[in-house]
Amino acid sequence: MGAMSETLIVHTKSKSAPVSLSSDAARRLLSLSAQEGRPVMLRVAVEGGGCSGFQYLFDLVERAEADDLKIERDGAAALVDPVSLELLAGSEIDFVDELAGAQFRVKNPNARSSCGCGVSFSI
Fold first, then answer.
1. Which residues of the chain, if any, have pLDDT below 50?
2. Is 99 in contact with 39 (CB distance < 8 Å)?
3. Residue 97: its H or E element
């Protein structure tokens, strides 16, 4: 039973993109792909837990799942599953390199509050 891929692809520069990828995040993903010697995509998911109720999970993957939303920018891509998409709608996936460390971060307009590390949030 071969299921057809239903991965929805949106480009960050599109005004209808439910989630966007910053230029810094795209640059970092391209750099990681070069280091790995193969294309990698950033999977962003939300699960219950963390100090504020929900937490972001980040993983580098080679393939999208059939029902993922694929967000593309400048040749880089991030993936979001349908369940997480509801909690991430309107968000921007960014990459920050600060004194405290370098990490991917989600700027989520739906988060009522978040922890100091930016990994956990509440709605």
1. 1-5, 14, 117-118, 120-122
2. no
3. strand 92-98
| Cα angle, residue 84 at apex, residues 78 and 87 outer, rounded to 5° | 110
Cβ atoms of residues 79 and 42 within 8 Å? yes
Coil, helix or strand at residue 36? helix
Task: Specify the pLDDT at position 16.
Answer: 56
- Report the relative pairing of strands 41-48 and 76-80 from DSSP bridges: parallel
- According to DSSP, the residues that pair with 114 across neighbouring strands are 121
Structural domains present in the chain? 8-122 (2.60.300.12)
Of 80, 46, 85, nearest to 65 (Cα)? Answer: 80
The pLDDT value recorded for residue 49 is 66
Tokens at 17, concatenated: 């993109």
For 24-33, how does the pLDDT look when each residue is reduced to its tens digit (9 = 90+)? 999 999 999 9
